[in-house]
Amino acid sequence: MTTAKLILDGKEYEFPVIVGSENEVAIDISTLRAKTGAITYDPGYGNTGACQSAITYIDGDQGILRYRGYPIQEIAAKATFVETCYLLIYGELPNAEQLSAFRHQLTYHTLLHEDMKKFFDGYTAQSHPMAIMAAMLTSLSTYYAESDDPDVINLNIIRLLAKAKTLAAFSYKKSIGQPYIYPRNDLSYTADFLHMMFAVPAEQYQVPDVLDRALNLLLILHADHEQNCSTSTVRMVGSSRASLFASIGAGVCALWGPLHGGANQEVIEMLEMIQADGGDYQKYMNLAKDKNSSFRLMGFGHRVYKNFDPRAKILKAAADDVLNALGVQDPLLDIAKNLEEIALKDSFFVERKLYPNVDFYSGIIYRAMGIPVDMFTVLFALGRLPGWIAQWKEMRGDPSTRINRPRQIFTGATERHYKPVSER
Ligand code: ACO
């Protein structure tokens, strides 16, 4: 198959077909409008390939997710988050020397400019940390010059990865009114973040291994997911040649929505609501199925996965392990499991191929780790950062990149003329 034919108004047009390395097929309609005058209509871009990418592969029907060819199960079981960052951004797993240099760079760029701390003073304790993250990450552009020089871009990539966790932890400390804990160079990426979150100046805090491992796993599982809403936002903003920091800040905003990364917070709030209501699952199942209600089973359904979300499978097992290791008994985990069991047998969910997604079990693990609900989506952002960066970098290096500018089918008023207010 090398071409596709389209007949419009009795006239035949031919378009090239592109085949990906996993035999995914796309009709290249980049000349459609010029040739035919017509555009495609695809609300939500469910059938639109906006780019060619060599970073992440998903087969939603088979439940496959691979980073640069490596199955997510292998990466999750064997790699560290820092290795995963390197893999996504630079295309290959690092050798020992590259890994040690990368770790060193990530360790020595963690400090925020002291003036940036003043920004935090302007926020109230109730400010959502996602708003703070978006603003702060964008504000990095006011401290660090940006240019198209690959060395400058690379340095800014390191700064972003290194400073994002400091920003995230500071925004948490701000919200609970505790003093900021500065980064420590003797700790790993994940342990350093947990230390900045949970240490207090008055006492020694040793990061428990179980928390370190759990965070590592969670960040890896969130690290990239090809052209999702926030990643497409990063590419869209970056396509106008906006800076890396600005593009990533926009990605954080897109991630915040409850239908995307904000779902992890919504899942816990939903489970708490069901618990407070006496565990009446059927009531909420019925609500989720009721077309007159806006209630959805949060953490269920996915645009791409129509079989299972491999990340959710890993996290369901991890939830049991982490809670056991921490000695935490959380009734919300039982509620989640019961809800999943009921949903997976319900014809509404079966017919629509709605399965638990990554957000369904992640919140339960965050909760057991002592991470407050408001911070869940911030942790998602921290995990997704290497994916956004890799996609931004790939987009900038692709000579076929054009400013992203979709078209529309106009349905408003046709031309009419202004009348003074007295005549209206
Ligand atoms: N609960 C109840 N019904 C649902 C759910 C749900 N969670 N998800 C989808 N449906 C139904 C829809 O009502 C629709 O039914 P219909 O065909 O009778 O109209 C059908 O399933 C298809 O749903 P769409 O909304 O068209 O699917 P879409 O691909 O546009 O949306 C999304 C995917 C946003 C993830 C959706 O499933 C959803 O809202 N889920 C809950 C929020 C969530 O968990 N988001 C996190 C996604 S993963 C991530 O971003 C990391």
Q: How would you describe what is shown here?
A:
The chain has 424 residues and is mostly helical. It has 3 domains: 57 residues, Rubrerythrin, domain 2; 202 residues, Orthogonal Bundle (Citrate Synthase, domain 1), CATH 1.10.580.10; 107 residues, Orthogonal Bundle (Cytochrome p450-Terp, domain 2). It contains 18 helices and 6 strands. The protein has a 3-stranded antiparallel beta sheet. Strands 4-5-6 form a 3-stranded antiparallel beta sheet. A hairpin with a 4-residue loop joins strand 4 and strand 5. Helix 2 runs antiparallel to helix 9 and helix 4 packs across helix 7. Acetyl coenzyme *A binds next to helix 17.
Our measurement of the CA-to-CA distance between the termini, rounded to an integer number of angstroms, reads 59 Å
Instruction: Please tell me the total number of domains.
Output: 3
How many extended strands? 6
Order of helices and strands: EEEHEEEHHHHHHHHHHHHHHHHH
Question: Which residue ranges are poorly predicted, with pLDDT under 50 across at least 5 consecutive positions?
Answer: none
Mean of residue pLDDT values:
95
Radius of gyration: 23 Å
| Class from secondary-structure proportions | mainly alpha
> Strand share of the residues?
5-15%
Bound molecules: acetyl coenzyme *A
CATH architectural name of the largest domain: Orthogonal Bundle
